[in-house]
UniProtKB/TrEMBL annotation:
Record-level GO BP terms: protein folding; protein polyubiquitination
PPIase cyclophilin-type domain mapped to chain residues: 261-410
Gene Ontology molecular function, alphabetical: peptidyl-prolyl cis-trans isomerase activity; ubiquitin protein ligase activity
Protein name per UniProt: PPIL2
Domain of life where this protein originates: Eukaryota
Length: 498
């Protein structure tokens, strides 16, 4: 901005200032308005990879093959400068340079005009190979620089590039386009490269509807695709699928029984699998996998409860049999009443994992907050020993003597029976469907070929001929053909009978 009267600065932003200093639109690097960019004669591009990929001339866009190329032989002097091998003049930007196509030797036009054109000696000045005027290729002409303007080259206008394998790999890196980053950002990205692990994509097989898991209602995909463009198109109604766990839990009608072996004695447990199937299956699966083996009962409060099931022993660890947490299952008849009630420990609503506890006495304030899923049916003396163990009240009521969950022995697992029953039902229904399909097929009449021909003799001629039929044919006498009587027809005659 101008401050003085005779200063060259304007009182407004010029186009140059706007494009260079203030982020305005810059001039195009190629096109009709692009600045002139000269291609030096000594520069060489990798044209073979370009031709193999695109099959065109990068300058004018016409078809071009590797056979159309001519290898040029440039000569250098002792100072490693390009020069004419005849006149020994060093090539520069103002030198008219040509090449002979049959040999590929490069000369200054001055030498070719004086020794070839004027002398009418059309042979190469180095190896005497004959050539014609049409074989002279202009490499650089200082008077016609338009041919060597990079801004007019076809491959730059169209953005055609040949990238190497390393560049292709680098482009896949998200940091490829980051030109300038701070040191803190660089450290964060480096740490992310070392610690980040992408999640493994689990291949989930699409379940198919069968005669057991097919619901009486549809998926609703047809209606959704008809009313919303955000959903995929669906033209066929498909029955919705009932969850396999729900089908299995409907067939669980029995209790589960197991024995927990501790270092203070055994605990016999009855599980309410018929009432709270999800919670009981979680406990049974973890017991059968040995998940609890070697864990400690990490918290014990006299006249209240004893808690365990955490492999870390801190009260903050553990996981369910399926990974993550699962929902609560509250039943009005399953309450924290009495000694030896088995219930799930949690950190809030629907946060059940692997931790559980046994009550030392009734705790009705825990109803509808913790899921009751079992009770002790044997081993109350072991529970008495657990309650008598002294605890560290300042250290989170942790028992001073180790109380260890050594192993578990499962006596009754109703979920295995339910799974077998479900598989049998599927097989039976498949058989019924096959039989019903057979009944619907039209019955084919039996042919004589299917029944087989009757044999009258063991072998020889006339094996399949009934001899009685031939005797009957001989005895039968052919009756004479009787003439049919003509029936009189009523018609007028010629009066001859009168």
């Amino acid at each position: 901005m101008g401050k003085k009267q005779h200063q060259s600065d304007k009182l407004y932003l010029t186009a140059t200032e706007w494009s260079t200093f203030y982020g305005g639109k810059k001039q195009e690097s190629h096109g009709p308005k692009a600045k002139f960019r000269r291609l030096p004669f000594h520069c060489c591009g990798y044209i073979l990879p370009f031709i193999k990929k695109y099959g065109i001339n990068p300058v004018d866009g016409k078809k071009l093959s590797p056979k159309d190329l001519t290898k040029l032989n440039f000569h250098k002097n002792s100072k490693d400068q390009y020069h004419c091998p005849v006149t020994f003049k060093v090539f520069n930007e103002n030198t008219h340079i040509v090449a002979i196509k049959p040999t590929g030797n490069v000369f200054a036009l001055e030498a070719v005009e004086r020794l070839n054109f004027k002398a009418k000696y059309f042979k190469d000045l180095i190896n005497d190979e004959p050539f014609t005027r049409a074989d002279v290729i202009t490499i650089q002409d200082p008077e016609e620089l338009g041919k060597f303007n990079l801004a007019d080259f076809y491959h730059l206008k169209k953005g055609l590039k040949v990238t190497s394998e390393e560049e292709e790999k680098a482009k896949k890196d998200p940091k490829y386009k980051l030109k300038a980053i701070s040191a803190e950002t660089r450290d964060i990205l480096n740490e992310l490269d070392t610690t980040y692990k992408p999640e493994e994509k689990k291949s989930v097989e699409k379940r198919k509807a069968d005669n057991v898991n097919a619901a009486h209602y549809s998926t609703g995909a047809v209606a959704a695709s008809f009313t919303s463009t955000a959903t995929d198109r669906a033209t066929h109604q498909e029955a919705d699928l009932i969850d396999e766990d729900k089908l299995k839990y409907e067939r669980v009608k029995k209790k589960g029984y197991l024995r927990i072996h501790t270092n203070l004695g055994p605990l016999n447990v009855e599980l309410h699998c018929d009432a709270v199937p999800k919670t009981c299956e979680n406990f049974l699966l973890l017991c059968q996998r040995g998940y609890y083996n070697g864990t400690h009962f990490h918290r014990s409060i006299r006249n209240f409860m004893i808690q365990g099931g955490d492999p870390t022993g801190t009260g903050k660890g553990g996981d369910s049999a399926w990974g993550g947490a699962f929902s609560d299952e509250f039943k009005p008849n399953l309450i924290h009443a009495g000694r030896g009630v088995l219930s799930m420990a949690n950190s809030g609503t629907n946060t059940n994992k692997s931790q559980f506890f046994f009550t030392y006495r009734s705790a009705r304030h825990l109803d509808n907050k913790h899921t009751v899923f079992g009770k002790l049916v044997g081993g109350l003396e072991t529970l008495d020993k657990m309650e008598k163990v002294e605890t560290d009240k300042k250290g989170g009521d942790r028992p001073l003597q180790d109380i260890i969950f050594e192993s578990c022995q499962v006596f009754m697992n109703p979920y295995e029976e339910a799974a077998e029953q479900l598989a049998k039902e599927r097989e039976e229904r498949k058989k019924q469907e096959i039989e019903e399909a057979k009944k619907l097929l039209p019955k084919r009449p039996k042919k004589a070929e299917d029944e087989g021909m009757k044999v009258y003799k063991s072998s020889g001629v006339g094996k399949y001929i009934n001899p009685s039929s031939s005797i009957k044919a001989e005895n039968e006498v052919s009756e004479p053909m009787t003439k049919k009587k003509k029936t009189a027809t009523g018609s007028f005659g010629d009066f001859s009978s009168w």
